[in-house]
Amino acid sequence: MSAVLGLYDEIRNDLESLRVEVVRASKIFYCIYGRNAWHSTWVQKYTNDCMHLTLDSAKKLAEARRVQGSVFTIKELPALVIEVGSHRIFVTQINSRCPLREYRHFDVDRFPGRTTRDCYLKVGEDLHTAVSSFVPWSKFWVVEQPPRNSIMLLYSSGEMRFEPLRTTPLVAWRSESDGPSYLLRWQRMASDVSGRSVLRIARHVGSRADSNRRSLSVTV
Fold first, then answer.
1. Please, what's the b/e burial string for 186-197 (b: 16 or more CB within 10 A of its CB; e: otherwise)?
2. Which residues, listed in sequence order, are joined to residue 92 by a DSSP beta bridge?
3. What pTM, to 2 d.p., does this model score?
4. Which of 170, 158, 173 is nearest to 56 (CA)?
5. Secondary structure (DSSP) of 46-71
6. In whole angstroms, what is the distance from residue 110 CA to residue 108 CA?
7. Which residues pair with 213 in a beta bridge?
8. What's the pLDDT at 162?
9. E strand or H helix at 131
10. Element (H, E) at 200
11. Mean pLDDT across the chain
12. Sequence-separated (6 or more) residues with CB below 8 Å from residue 151
């Protein structure tokens, strides 16, 4: 079973009529190639197979793509996980020190006299509607997000486990080579990426779901 995450658009049409069951906070592993990747002196770009559910899977990608002089960085990234049946949709953001910091699960439009606000990211919502709240121009962003190399919508299917996101600091690894006959060595380092916004969103969605369940039980 593959630990490589694919793009949501690849399976979008297979997920019609599904509804959000659970929203959680997770961490995934982003494998970046380039000598400057650690210091982020250039815009990081999404490439095929660069997002992984496990650190081991990301390291295997680096081994497969290494050539003389290659330097890789693997970063833990915080991601929201939207679960529907055996499918999981992962929402994260690259080129951000605090992914999803400018996302609000209630829309940010404020019209005179308006008394209600929309919320698409919730348990029981149509999956595509929930995912649409993350498009760069949606009304759920405080400011419009870049159209490329920013918001990432990914997926995995099957029983492959993902790592839950905790409050402990995220970390990263940079590759070091002892020559082509040896596996890459990995130097662990502190990361400049924070998971606090992803945790905030997951907690808000979870608390609303718990509140709704309590209301239903009282009604019954």
1. beeeebebbbeb
2. 152
3. 0.87
4. 173
5. --TT-EESSHHHHHHHHHHH--TT--
6. 6
7. none
8. 92
9. helix 127-132
10. helix 196-219
11. 87
12. 91, 92, 93, 134, 135, 136, 145
Which two structure tokens, joined as six digits, stand for 136? Answer: 């760069």
The better pLDDT of the pair 41, 123 is held by 123
Q: What is the pLDDT of residue 219?
A: 42
CA dist 38 and 40 (Å) reads 6
d(CA 57, CA 196): 25
- For the record, the structure tokens of 91 come out as 């929402």
CA gap 83, 79 in Å, rounded: 12
For residue 218, the tally of other CB atoms under 10 A from its CB is 7
In whole angstroms, give the CA distance from residue 55 to residue 186.
11
Distance CA 220, CA 211 (A): 14
In angstroms, the CA 2 to CA 12 distance is 19
Give residue for tokens 């939207």: 82
Return the beta strands (E) in the chain as ranges. Answer: 6-7, 22-33, 51-52, 72-84, 87-93, 151-157, 163-164, 171-176, 185-190
pLDDT at 218: 37
Dihedrals phi, psi of 72, to nearest 5 degrees? -120, 150
Phi, psi of 196 (to 5 degrees): -65, -35
Within 10 angstroms of residue 96's Cβ, the number of other Cβ atoms is 20
